[in-house]
Write the structure tokens for this entry.
Amino acid sequence: MKLKVNPTRQELLKIKKRLNTAKSGHALLKEKLDGLMQEFLADIRNLKLAREDLDQKIPAALFDFFFAYNKMGERKITGLVSHLPKADIDLSFFNVMGVKIRKGEVKNLKEVEDSKISLLSGDNFIYRSKKEISKNINDILNYANLTMKIRLLAEEIEKTRRRVNSLEHVYIPEMERIKKYISQKLEERERFDRTVILKLKEVMDSKK
């Protein structure tokens, strides 16, 4: 395929500059991709551990809640928990290799943990459920934070990988091809010019 490019020295300098920039960008993106993958894999391991931990703690609390719900009904449970404080979630952000990660934290954790449901007849199941959930609310939120972080990192990894592949397999090879084409054309022109000069010199020498 014939390249539509002007084979001049000025154009060759431009291509070399763009090629060097692309190679530097490719190296930086590869480094970023490696860093993101390390962070991602570490978070996957931490999420697995967090899930195993919650799987040991939460099912009993959920069982107690559903048992109480079936026994007492929604209205009575609502009355029992209506005075309890709601978790006040404070959102903050931090940066992981250019990825903006949101983190939630319970501001009134102690208030939530210390709030109680009175032990009336028949409500011991909802009491136990509330106590267990409150005790592990930070772990539940941390699990949610980690899940969100992993999703954002996965999106950034995919986007970065596409950019790396585009540079590596499309843009840089194309710039190399253009550079080679211009260099060849300039060499052909130089050979032609040298041939013309030699011929002119021969003609001039023969006339002496």
